[in-house]
Amino acid sequence: MKKRQKKRILKWFALLIIICGVSIGIKYVFFPDENEKIRKTISLAVSEIEKKDINSFIRHFTLDYRDCFDNTYGTLYILLRNNIDSIRTIDIDISQIEIDIEKSNATVRFFATFYIKTTDGEDYKDAGRFILKIRKEDLKWRVYRLDEMGYEFD
């Protein structure tokens, strides 16, 4: 009798561990944390602009978007649409990502390096630190402000 009880307890314990493991897996697959959602949004936006998919890229921005270069949502879209055909390749590397979330808003600080080759053979390289302001709209994180950080020397 005791042997049967031990087996039953072990089976229930194993079942409990399996259920906990599946629950944790489901949480991370279907309900990732907000930091991961933001990182995924940034990664997706970079991938779309590198593919020169302007329509998909612009969906990551709010209609009231502004940046430090005096672009709005509309001027950014027109600028990209009018110039994308003159670009052969775009490569953007983003690193040193820091995310601060406060309710439905987040501030993302990062370092970006840009490599652009034009169809007429010119190469452009640039790098800088940026501050991205994003907010959650319709369960998606969207960019409403982009600013370049000034250089700081110790």
Concise account of the structure shown:
Helix content is 40%, strand content 40%. The chain has helices at residues 2-30, 34-50, 54-58, 73-83; strands spanning 61-67, 87-102, 105-118, 123-137, 140-148.
Q: Can you tell me about this structure?
A:
This protein is α+β, with helices and mostly antiparallel strands. The protein folds into two domains: 1-31; 33-148, Nuclear Transport Factor 2, Chain: A, CATH 3.10.450. The protein has helices at 2-30, 34-50, 54-58, 73-83; strands at 61-67, 87-102, 105-118, 123-137, 140-148. A five-stranded mixed beta sheet has the order 1-5-4-3-2. The longest helix has 29 residues, at 2-30. It is elongated and about 80 Å long. The mean pLDDT is 88.
